[in-house]
Write a structure and sequence with these properties.
Length: 114
């Protein structure tokens, strides 16, 4: 069994949570809408073809909980935007998932073999 430092595993959990949030096509569509800039829920709802407000609210909550989007209050409205720094960091994780991207073991060939 491989043992990991606490920081490595907690970092992996956070990354997995973010990828999991993007595992739903509706949430990917919301991210694409927000890629164009800040939007209030009614504009996001419009762009997604009139999705019910309670369902949109749920998806926004999941994305915000994962840290992928941010919100701010503007008068009576809440406006959402992409957390660009978080999304860029997540995109930077993809090359690290390629086989051979990171060498985990420096121990060399098993002893006793030649």
């Amino acid at each position: 069994m491989v043992k990991y430092a606490k920081g490595v595993l907690s970092d992996a959990r956070l990354i997995a949570k973010r990828f999991k949030a993007l595992g739903d096509p509706t949430r990917v569509a919301i991210m694409r809408v927000l890629a164009a800039g800040e939007h209030c829920p009614c504009r996001i709802q419009e762009a997604l073809g009139g999705m019910p407000a309670n369902l949109l609210s749920h998806h926004l909550k999941v994305l915000r909980s994962a840290g992928l989007i941010r919100s701010r209050r503007e008068g009576r409205w809440i406006v959402y935007r992409i957390a660009e720094d978080v999304v860029a960091a997540l995109a930077g994780e993809i090359p690290r998932l390629e086989p051979g991207a990171e060498k985990v073991c420096n121990c060399g060939p098993p002893r006793g073999r030649r």
